[in-house]
Amino acid sequence: MLFSFLQPNIDRARNATHAHIRTMITLDTAAWQNGVRMAIISVAPILIGVLTAHLALSVMAFLGALGVAFADVGGEYQNRALSMFSATVFMTVTVLVATITGANPWLVTLLMFAWAFFGSMAGLYGHLAGKVGFSTIFVFILVMGQPASIGVAWMRMLAVIIGAAWSLAISLWLWPFRPFLPARQAVSGYYQAVSALLRKACHIELEQHWNEEVKQERARLQRAHDKAHQIVAGQRSQRSDAHPFHSLLLMLVLQADSLMEAVIALVEELAVARTQNYHQDEQSAFVMEECAALLEQLAYAIAGKKQGLRLETLEHSLYAIETQEYVLRASLPQLKKEYYTLANTRMLKIQPEHQHSLIHDWLSLRLVNTRNLANLLKRMSELTREARDLLTQSDGQEILQEMLQAEATSKGKFSWKALYAVVRERVSLFKDNLTLRSFTLRHALRLATISAVAVAIAKLLHIPDGSWIALNILFILRPDYGATREQTVQRILGTIIGAILGMLLITVLHINFLIFPVMIVMSFFCFAYQEKNNTLFILFFTTFIIIMLDLIMPGNGLVPFIRIATTLAGGSMGILAGYLFWPLWERERLPQQMGRTILANRAYIASVLAAFIADSDKKAALEAVRRASKDAHVQNVNAAAAFQRLLNEQRASENEIERFHILVTYNQRICDNATALAAHISTRPEHDKFHQLERFSQQMKWMLLDVEEAARTGQRIGVNSPFKGMLRDVLASLQYLLATYPANIAEQQEGKGEMARRAYSMCE
């Protein structure tokens, strides 16, 4: 009983821990599919090698299949095929060179430097080229540790080609049968991410607005947004003869963009309601759960799953949301009556002025917030109905006919001149990055140098399986020190646990036919967690490799210990290289990132206010808001990611961490408030242009300019600086807006109160 007051905090911590563990180990559909696919790709070559007594060549086939799988960029089939086929070509050449030169320590060290340097520099040309470069380096490191004659080299090349073809076939076998599968999955994932964010936001506590769990969900939502736009919008723009289904998916992506902004605005309004305690949490959570369920149904329908769009259930959820909207709107007349009665009595000074003012402000906030919640719920139901209509009108083909007729039908022709221009541009980009100011060049030199040193040490000292040192460096080393340190810890932890598990399994599994089921299980979980949890990926991958090597060299009990030793050596060398060779400290880069974030938020706020002020060309103003919104959301996600990397740096002081945490948090709040404000542009009265906001817009601009400069330079804004004066002017403008709001009782004037309230929130 003495510590009973601690019980709520203990329960909250326990629940948070359980939720974190569930989130960490839970597998979604994409993870299950990747696990099954990679289990088939990786285990089949080993099984064939055991059956045919050609384990050495089967390992090479496994290596080719694995390297091609690492080069898979995901998304559109054409890009996946291009990356995997390119990796096959480069890996085949790499196997030939590495096999022949592996016996010469000095030559292979020089080649290691060249392969690591140019493979890393390939990242200049995008994600696809970077993946191919990584796979090429990966294969070179493993093969150069097993030198052989030219005859064996040719056989290895053939085995790698067979393994790569096997990986290509398994990865792309659905292409002719389901050509739209990647695009459908991307759009479905986008809707699922919007639904997940809304569901997580249902449980935000009053004092934990946008807590860490919800922030992680927002980051996943931004990635889903980027993936959907990259696959669907990019594919649509590249094909003049696109199928109508592509146009349907594009319209669904644009619809999801509007839903995402409506969700953010809804969460902001509910947060305001919770601070005033005039809406029940259960009621708010119920409405948000219904909205999330609707979006989840749409996601299933887009993906073509069995539990897809059930119109009866969807209509029931829409009815529940619209009922809540009706309840909110039904409360408006009484709130208005109370509000204007109080406004009139205020002039007569019937009550004490201070008490009267507080009640007046509370009622004004409640009135505006209730109207906003009703409008947002109406917008959510309308957007959901529109998305449903797109899915239920014969795949949307009728509504897309006019759009398709306007497309050009001619295809571009091959041009040597165009090809020459592209090659020249690529060469110019490479030359421009041949300077130590280039982050890509620094990382390439760092990786090439430390990898070459690791290979030289392993060859000269004849370390058993010494190539694994360089392999660990390849997986650990990152452009910034914080990420390198995090990768090192995860890899060492995963390797040690995986090696122990591998030893136990080798000891227990005396019967050979039990080995392959265990390998299938290890391979499945390894690649199921590849994108979700790096520590678990390394753990299961290490266990799989140890079991596979025991098949090749049975009875060699030193393999797990060698694996642990080489991981420790590679991790130490990677950390040392990241710290000594042109270290990229996030604490030095983050101020510039925060400057870009504040700049993007400033442009976003300016575009939203301009849309309210604009006298004409509303369409252009809304397009400017859309572009500014996209940039602001991207920059805020980048700032949050940069701050997470800062936490892994030992040089970061507590003061720096606290300062940047405040900057990241409040910039995200500013962006969210601007999004919530933008949601009301469409309901703005046409005859009221809000000209009184022009001065406020200019003052906000100058204030954020000062904050941006302070963030970039690290200087604090002084107490006597112009910032305080401008802040007083802004607050005076907002008080004027709030004071003039009740002067006109007409319904359309409520927008002024919302502008004042939302702008006041941003200013604070």
From TrEMBL:
The chain crosses the membrane at residues 46-70, 82-100, 132-148, 154-175, 496-529, 536-555, 561-582. Keywords: Cell membrane, Membrane, Transmembrane, Transmembrane helix. Residues 88-341 form the Integral membrane protein YccS N-terminal domain. Its main location: membrane. It holds the Pfam family FUSC_2. It is a multi-pass membrane protein. It comes from the Bacteria. It is found in: Cell membrane. Residues 453-576 form the Integral membrane bound transporter domain. Belongs to the YccS/YhfK family. This is Integral membrane protein YccS N-terminal domain-containing protein.
